[in-house]
Amino acid sequence: MSELRIFGVTGIGEIHPRDDLAGIIATAVADHHGGLLDGDVVVVTQKIVSKAEGQLVAVDPDDPLSHKALVEAETVRVLRRRGDLIISETKHGFVCANAGIDLSNVELGFAALLPEDSDRSARRIRDAIRARAGVEVAVIVSDTFGRPWRKGLTDVAIGCAGIGAIVDYRGTTDTQGRELQVTEVAIVDELAGAADLVLGKSTGLPVAIVRGVDPAWLRTGNVHDEIVRDPSEDLFR
Amino acid sequence: MSELRIFGVTGIGEIHPRDDLAGIIATAVADHHGGLLDGDVVVVTQKIVSKAEGQLVAVDPDDPLSHKALVEAETVRVLRRRGDLIISETKHGFVCANAGIDLSNVELGFAALLPEDSDRSARRIRDAIRARAGVEVAVIVSDTFGRPWRKGLTDVAIGCAGIGAIVDYRGTTDTQGRELQVTEVAIVDELAGAADLVLGKSTGLPVAIVRGVDPAWLRTGNVHDEIVRDPSEDLFR
After folding, report:
1. Do B227 and A151 touch (CB under 8 A)?
2. CA distance B17 to chain A (A)
3. Is A235 a member of any domain?
4. Closest by alpha carbon to B87, among A151, A235, A237?
5. Among A4, A185, A193, whose Cβ lies nearest the Cβ of B6?
6. Which of B9, B38, B217, B224 is deepest in the core (most CB within 10 A)?
7. How many structural domains comprise chain A?
8. Are A126 and A211 found together in one domain?
């Protein structure tokens, strides 16, 4: 019987620019949860990746326009605008509210931008965890996005390493022996959402471990090439 | 430490119209997994709910047009059309490919429509599990949808009972004591996606159990009122 276990990692304090995020995560899991295992999926929320990478920009907390100018600067294409809300495409190709910039859980007077390249961030964390703890884990960098047609937000992957972003069931057959029509599942997005269930938005826990995923999923992969849809192939841009 | 366990339920055979789905699920979990517990979230994939409810329509397997006519009949609004693919709004308010109709894992010569009212389906399964097994579970009916901007499919909730579809963090504060901007999380969609990680598309397992969710989430809830966005409030319709 395949079974997943998902738990939030306790003992990770406030993160600052140039902090050794991989070391901090590996130590916290060792101290509080018995240590990382080969094949674990480490889901790291975007905010602490941005902080560790110094992706912080000063904003005037009393001037809403300074935050707004930042959103415009990070936007390559505005899809919709209503009141204060801008749905935009970022330079990374993500479509989200306010170019992925928000102010919560960041020191007053600062805003956190998305990492420059979240797939690279995930690779670096994965490599550093291997170096420090001697384990082969997968890493997902997650962020919280809205979506059209459905209310509420869900966490999705903005970067990954050591795991395929998509599992392709093409060529496999259903229980009736017919070739499957539904073929490409975005497992990194389902994993990011699953991790959010134990992190929540107000616990302050920024990292979750998903243990027990199918070993066949653990391969080279990245969000940019596998998940981000090119505007030319997109029916809604 | 809060921890989730997620496992697929073995021992559920082919489902037919008028089958006692709740009894079949409760028995399979009792026989193979030690039984259902109060607070378990039972995620049931749409296909077997539609089959048990007799939402099957004959199609000519040699005539692709008979399937297509069905899609048109179940559609209240076409959002996009490209080649064979129609992205449409169903009478339930869901926006998805081909009005949620697909042919995989259905007997040759038949197509499965979405349940008439998936929230009602979830309530009936929940009530019947309480009656048969004496446990208070939450039930989510899940289906596999695509999305704009991101490639790959994920499982989302099309119905729920005994759990809020959305958790609202409005009024709670972040680690800096500031009121949270991200406030409404679609936990039933994150749970549906998490369940898909142990079901996959070709295992044939149609039900998963998520154990260990926050008891505060277990309240009256439904997808139609909480998740389905009214077209008038939607920036992308």
Report:
1. yes
2. 17
3. no
4. A235
5. A4
6. B9
7. 2
8. yes
Are residue A47 and residue A156 in the same domain, yes or no? yes
Q: What residues of chain B lie within 8 A of the CB of A221, using their CB?
A: none
DSSP A38: T
CATH number of the domain where residue A83 is located: 3.90.1660.10
Complex ipTM value: 0.94
CA atoms within 13 A on the CB side of A19: 17
* Cβ within 8 Å, pair A3-B1: no
How far away is chain B from the Cα of A69, in angstroms, using its nearest Cα? 18
Give the three-state DSSP class for B181.
coil
H or E segment to which residue B3 belongs = strand B3-8
Q: Which of A149, A176, A194 lies at the smallest CB-CB distance from B194?
A: A194
Task: Decide: A160 and A138 in contact? Cβ < 8 Å.
Answer: yes
The residue range of the domain holding B38 is: 5-54+118-227
List, for residues B132-171, the tens digit of each pLDDT value: 999 999 999 999 999 999 999 999 999 999 999 999 887 6
What is chain A's alpha carbon radius of gyration, rounded to the nearest angstrom? Answer: 18
Q: Which residue of B has its CA nearest to A189?
A: B154
* List of chain A residues whose C-beta atoms are within 8 Å of the C-beta of residue B165: 152
Residues B126 and B220 in one domain: yes
Q: pLDDT tens, A89-134?
A: 999 999 999 899 877 778 888 899 999 999 999 999 999 999 999 9
For residue B57, give Cα distances in angstroms to B63, B72, B108.
14, 14, 11
Torsions phi, psi for B2 (to 5 deg): -80, 135
Contact yes or no for A101/A74 (Cβ under 8 A): yes
Task: Give residue-wise pLDDT tens across range B187-232.
Answer: 999 999 999 999 976 567 999 999 999 999 999 999 999 999 998 8
Do B158 and B45 have their domain in common? Answer: yes
